[in-house]
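Re: your question about Transcription elongation factor, mitochondrial

S., sorry for the slow reply, the queue was backed up all week. Below is exactly what I fed in.
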Amino acid sequence: MWIVKHLVSTVLRNAGHHGLFHRCLGSLPKLEHRYLHCTCCWRSRISIPDFDLLTSTISSEVCEDEGKSLDLNYSPEERTAILERLNTATVNDLAQVKLLRGRKCVNIVEYRTQNGPFKDLESITKVPLFKHKTALVVFHSILHPNEKRESRKPSIQGLMKSLKPAVDRKFLEEARSIVSIVSGMDKIAWAHMDRGLHVLDWKQQKCPNFAKEPFMASAYFDDISSVVSRIPEADIYLMEKSAVTLQNMSMYHVLVHLRTVEAMLFVLLGQRNKPGAAPNVLNMVRLAVGRHFGLMVGDARTSGDHLVRQMMTDSVWQKNPRVSFPPPLVVRYRSTLELQARKNGDELCDALLQAIAFYEKLSELKAE
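Result:
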């Protein structure tokens, strides 16, 4: 108690001076003239020379659009065009609209099936995953569908940005063949493909030491060395860069496993390169491949086994298929890629799709 009394007496003694709880008005620092942007509408700058002005500005002027009905932002003709798209478009058509790919377009179709067509724009906020700001972006994309497409630069947003380490564009264009490699928890798969999208080799190999404790590096090395000895020569070795990060600690052991396999593959395959040449072992971001084939649901990528099975069928029946498979490979993997056995072919499918995405993105790059 005497400590409290001592502090109180000290404060009182220092009244009128620069104490712990008192500061003269003349000593207040000058506030810098700064600006903020409203996080609701991002419409205007907010001057904040002091806290009172900031409070009054936010409460009276900036966020008024947040409470305004969506219908009031558009003319009758625009509202009619938006509602027609929302009420008649299929899931695939809606997926072409900005922010609607994935679960949002499915939610729209499910909502109008259960509740009837949308009668006004404001009713879309009743659909799961839709908020005011999301609806504004979606409506703008419906009214101006070609706006983003005209300004897009494939070379920046496509292939070059999804590859690590960075390589010269000319090196990619001169590559005659690639080997696309995907690692799983107990196997490694690879697809050897040329520039004409002809599948030259397509295999996977079990790695029994991956699942054996105590997970010795030497055991990993034996399995990976065995795989590398079977991988054919190519100009570029393309390895999948998974989306697993340290943010999800429950997946830490998976991350360590994938990074260990990746590092050993980089070293062993890199030995095939000539001294001083450009890197021949590259990472391709897994999510970039998922977006290329429309396999994303939110931030997660779904399986592409149905795409691969369709490509194999087209290779047999179509004159100019998207991808050409040798008949022996079609026969070999027909049962492996059946739906009930999909887990046996996930890495095979991913390796093939990664190779196709690489060449198709390369074609976009050359066409710009």
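The first strand starts at residue 35 and ends at 37. The chain is about 45% helix and 10% strand.

Happy to talk it through on Thursday.
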